[in-house]
Amino acid sequence: MFTHSIPALFSREETREIVRLADDAQAAAGGLVGGLQHNDIRRAQIAWLDDTGSAAWVMERIVSAVAAANREHFDFAITEFGERLQVATYDESNAGHYDWHSDIGDGPIARRRKLTIVVQLTEPAGYQGGELQINLGSAMLSAERGIGDATLFASFMLHRVAPVSSGRRKSLTCWCHGPQFR
Among 82, 84, 86, 150, whose CB has the most other CB atoms within 10 angstroms? Predict the structure, then answer.
């Protein structure tokens, strides 16, 4: 299996602090790999956190959790966390979503992605729709929605954020890098 759940990776208070850090950062329209904008595929606002400054504690927790999960469940060659932490906001006002995609793509950064970790930052009652869904081939996995819960999966797996029909969903995403899959 190329997915793994980590319940309560962050506490409710810690998720509030992550959201505050994202609110302090300048949000922009979320794009696709390579920076392309395509609203039919992705409608979200994203903010990048300073993972060596104010959000260093967040990155430390992510690195520790991913290292443990990789040893136990994936055994991928991980060499670095080559991208900053991304907080995405999917809002009902624009039917926020991200259609089916994988996190591996063209370019020197995206082709080295091995694992993706997504952390739920919003209370489940705060929105409808917006499920993180991972295509397992013969089945589909909907990620846990508990606040602070993390879902880790191989970056080559197709996944999406279903349209938000009410409220607002926020999530934290980070990618782990290593030698390109062959």
Answer: 150
Domains of the chain and CATH, by start: 3-28+45-177 (2.60.120.620)
| pLDDT score for 39 | 55
Q: Which residues contact 77 (CB under 8 A, 6 or more apart)?
A: 114, 178, 179
Distance CA 172, CA 77 (A): 23
Q: With bands split at pLDDT 50, 70 and 90, how would you rate the model's confidence at 43?
A: confident
Query: What pLDDT sits at residue 30?
Result: 55
The phi-psi region of residue 75 (left if phi > 0; otherwise alpha if psi is between -120 and 50; otherwise beta) is: left
Rounded alpha-carbon distances, angstroms, from residue 11 to 8, 16, 20, 42, 120: 6, 9, 14, 28, 11
